[in-house]
Amino acid sequence: MQIRVYFEDTDSGQIVYHANFLRFMERGRTNYLRLLGTNQQALLKEAKNDAPGVAFVVRSMTIDFLKPAVLDDILDVVTVPQEVRGASIALLQECRRGDDLLVTARVRVAFISAGKAQRIPKSLRLASIDKSAASFTRLPCSAPTNSSHHGGVS
Fold it and tell me: Fewer Cβ atoms within 10 A, N terminus or C terminus of the chain?
């Protein structure tokens, strides 16, 4: 998924404020669900019948800021499932500018109802397993490529 960096995303030096990468990756996870063929409104409606108050929540995240993004950059947000469990999915996410890897994150997302972990709906779990078992190529919102990590942002 491509995202353009706007002035509102940057600090006074026109560099993307670090917390905005979290927003970009949230959009990437939402788009990932769409790419799986999941209509989020329909999923929530279906799940409410079985378990009221359902939601996906970020359980944990490890993030590395490698290089900055700046005003007017076009970023690719890439999301790939790493592990699917009964109530959670582990994802690898990357923000890239062309061939430059800017940010990587490992995210565990849990499916909850009434504040407690619940099994992920079968159709979504199976679609995620199919995606994680597939052989990926570098496409926005599909798969990261292996690359060496040069430089970083302090």
Answer: C
Give the per-residue pLDDT at 51.
62
Q: Give how far Cα 28 sits from Cα of 3, 25, 95, Å.
A: 10, 5, 9
Buried b (16+ CB within 10 A) or exposed e, 105-117: bebbbbbbbeeee
The DSSP bridge pattern shows strands 116-117 and 74-84 to be unpaired
CA–CA dist 107, 25 (Å, integer): 10
Q: What is the CA radius of gyration of the chain?
A: 16
* Residue 93: Cβ within 10 Å count: 24
Locate tokens 């917390």: which residue?
19
Task: Please state the separation of Cα 148 from the chain's center in Å.
Answer: 21
Contact assessment for residue 119 and residue 73, using Cβ atoms and an 8 Å cutoff: no
Question: Of 1 and 55, which is predicted with more confidence?
Answer: 1
Q: Which residues are catalytic?
A: 11
pTM: 0.75
Phi first, then psi: give them for residue 72, nearest 5 degrees.
Answer: 75, 0
